[in-house]
Amino acid sequence: MARGLKKHLKRLNAPKHWMLDKLGGAFVSSKGFIWTSQIQGMPAIILILRNRFKYALTYHEVIAILMQQHVLVDGKVRTDKTYPSGFMDVVSIPKTNENFRLLYDTKGQF
Question: Which residue of 1, 37, 61, 69 pairs with 56 in a disulfide if CB–CB is 3.0 to 4.6 A?
């Protein structure tokens, strides 16, 4: 039997507020989840950059952006692709002079 937390999460079992497509692959990055009673799992920074902001088309492009230290989360450089981005976090990209605050809409989606 396996010990510890699962490091894989199938796309169909991911929370619906991540707004992932069904045919985009089998798995989604799940190492950096925050599971609390108030918040039902926050998506990793890789999902925010690739799926929401459309800064990259592939997983490898997101890793290249993060390793060049172009992304700040709450004013700190983050290079971990599975870093969980939470509610009211500010994601900044200084090279393009853009700042994003992660909020929910009326449907409970980012």
Answer: 61
The answer, yes or no, to whether residue 98 has pLDDT greater than 60, is yes
Asked if 15 and 87 count as a contact pair (C-beta separation under 8 A), the reply is no
Q: Could you tell me the two tokens for 43?
A: 């998506």
Q: Kind of pairing, strands 27-29 and 8-10?
A: antiparallel
Query: Are the beta carbons of 39 and 87 closer than 8 angstroms?
Result: yes
- Would you call 39 helix, strand, or coil by DSSP? coil
The residues, any chain, with a CB within 8 Å of residue 18's CB and separated by 6 or more, are 28, 43, 47, 51, 110
Q: How confident is the model at residue 110 (pLDDT cuts 50, 70, 90)?
A: low
pTM of the model: 0.70
